[in-house]
């Protein structure tokens, strides 16, 4: 399969869907593809094997705990934004890049109804993300922040994020299947020089540090053991 540039794919979407649907679809596709790419990296580090968590904890526990917590909240923001209302404050002059904007630009009655249904399913799948976005990520609910009696936040797990992403992908693939006669396997992306490469470097570093510690304990230290590199 020949590589297609972002500009070429945008032009194809507009040519086959017309405006503004083509541009909207293309923008949503780009946003979701990037979110999936970042999510896959997150899962490589924090959602694949307990041994990887052990490695991260041995290398830099406080740092990787921060990365895990902060990145997870970023994904909740992504899920919230892409399923936000089509317009901010119901103002047509303030459109949002949201799957909720797709249906109004679709003229085929059946497709429009199917998209509206699937968007509804996606909204249900992302309810937890918007609750977190509204009460603790983008805004701080005072009672939650002060640990006072209030409505508890819903659970937010990797499984829920995965299912929410799939529900959004299903909406875009429904539109693409109709107009472009194709679908995208968003979760099949491969990131080169990413998180997995980091794990191998960390493994080598932790192993080297263990060996250095053993040399020091045995009184067989190398000259370089006392001379850490200037990073």
In a nutshell, what does this entry contain?
This protein is mainly alpha-helical and 231 residues long. It has helices at 6-17, 21-46, 50-59, 61-82, 109-125, 127-137, 142-145, 158-179, 195-218.
Describe the structure.
This protein is mainly alpha-helical and 231 residues long. It folds into two domains: 12-190; 192-231. It is built from nine helices and no strands. Helix 3 (50-59) packs across helix 4. It is elongated.
Q: Determine Rg (CA atoms, Å).
A: 23 Å
Oligomer: single chain
Beta strand count: 0
Number of domains: 2
Strand content: under 5%
Structural class: mainly alpha
Helix content: 55-70%
Q: Please give the largest β-sheet.
A: none
Low-confidence stretches: none
How many H/I helical runs? 9
Query: What is the ordering of alpha helices and beta strands?
Result: HHHHHHHHH
Q: Judging from the principal axes of the Cα atoms, what is the shape? A: elongated
Termini, distance in Å?
A: 43 Å
Mean pLDDT: 95
């Amino acid at each position: 399969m020949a590589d297609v540039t972002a500009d070429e794919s945008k032009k194809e979407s507009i040519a086959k869907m017309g405006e503004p649907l083509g541009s909207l679809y293309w923008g949503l596709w780009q946003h979701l593809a990037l979110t999936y790419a970042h999510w896959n990296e997150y899962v490589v580090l924090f959602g694949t094997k307990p041994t990887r968590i052990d490695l991260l904890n041995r290398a830099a526990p406080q740092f990787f705990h921060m990365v895990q917590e902060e990145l997870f909240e970023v994904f909740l923001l992504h899920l919230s934004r892409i399923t936000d209302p089509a317009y901010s404050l119901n103002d047509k002059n303030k459109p949002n890049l949201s799957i909720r904007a797709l249906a109004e630009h679709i003229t085929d009655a059946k497709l429009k109804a199917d998209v509206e249904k699937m968007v509804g399913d996606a909204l249900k799948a992302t309810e937890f993300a918007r609750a977190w976005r509204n009460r603790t990520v983008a805004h701080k609910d005072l009672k939650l922040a002060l640990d006072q009696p209030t409505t508890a936040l819903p659970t937010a797990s990797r499984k829920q994020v995965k299912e929410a992403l799939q529900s959004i992908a299903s909406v875009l693939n429904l539109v693409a299947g109709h107009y472009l006669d194709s679908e995208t396997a968003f979760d099949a992306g491969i990131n080169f020089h990413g998180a997995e490469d980091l794990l191998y470097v960390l493994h080598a570093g932790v192993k080297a540090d263990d060996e250095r510690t053993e040399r020091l304990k045995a009184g067989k230290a190398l000259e370089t053991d006392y001379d850490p590199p200037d990073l």
